[in-house]
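Ticket 4471: requesting a sanity check on a complex prediction with zinc ion. Repro inputs:
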Amino acid sequence: MQNILGIETSCDETGVALYSADRGLVGDLVYTQADHAAYGGVVPELASRDHVRKLPGMVRELLDRTGTSAEALDAVAYTAGPGLAGALLVGAATGVALAAALDVPAIAVHHMEGHLLSPLLEDPAPAFPFVALLVSGGHTMLVAVEGFARYRLLGETLDDAAGEAFDKTARLLGLGYPGGPEVARLAENGDPDRFEFPRPMTNRPGLDFSFSGLKTHTRELVTRVAPEDYADAAAGFEQAVAETLAIKCKRALKETRMQRLVVAGGVSANTRLRTELERRIPGRVYYPSLKLCTDNGAMIAHAGWYRRAEANRDGVIAVRPRWAIDSLSQ
Ligand code: KG4
Ligand code: ZN
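Returned structure tokens:
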């Protein structure tokens, strides 16, 4: 198996990419749906319709731009879950149908495994074993990764995901969606120490997270202060999330006695988080390149290559909106 087309449609990014076993990532196109901004969050029905509109043309454009003929594809990988059911179905139906039409197998990929393996696309790539912090809009988890498909969930969020906390905080501060980059921009000119913020669940043992209290704390703060103080509130919030995540990463490395830390998912693009990790983590920290932090087809094509043994021609179009990552362990 040589050339794998990857399709990502689990949320509000439509992504297509071509990964080649010998050339690595050959091409990668991402379209971020804009309609959701007006609603302050992703509207599932709109997301599905936009994927339907965009996906076929993007596959064509990817092949054209990379000078690849459809016949040169050896498999089609698509995100089968977790994510929004309707949005996932667009990618799954397109991927399975395209594979059948080209007479090649299809590969169902777990979105978070896509994120988890994405730093392996970089140079230098992290060697196994490592601890992975996966921080996205829907998930926050720490995973002990002994090797490919050898995953042990160490901890996860009990309520909101880190990205979700950023998105909700952005809304409280009157900022747009997605909230992470907006909060980060406002926080650049803020004083992170002016207002006090909790570091949830850091002073008791364990590797789980909780971010809903932080969001409530921000809501109460915002009602008390003037808009001129929002930059300080944003900086305080961002610093609290960054430190909380970094403290738990350090603890996870200590408990697993692993040396390497991998951080992936949308929130891994956050500069303050990266600074805090560099400050606290003794070993090396590995990230995907900035454009591969948020959702994309490259990580799906790449994970599809790792999952090539599961390629099949059964023609079944099925998605798993909820899908535990440790169930992938072999
Ligand atoms: O991985 P991703 O693109 O989609 C999911 O799988 O959920 O992550 C999206 C999340 C959003 O919540 C967004 O606000 C957050 O990642 N995000 C950031 C930054 N860029 C994206 N959060 C903090 N700082 C950023 N620079
Ligand atoms: Zn994601």
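Notes from triage: Residues 233 and 323 are 35 Å apart (CA to CA). Leaving this open until the requester confirms.
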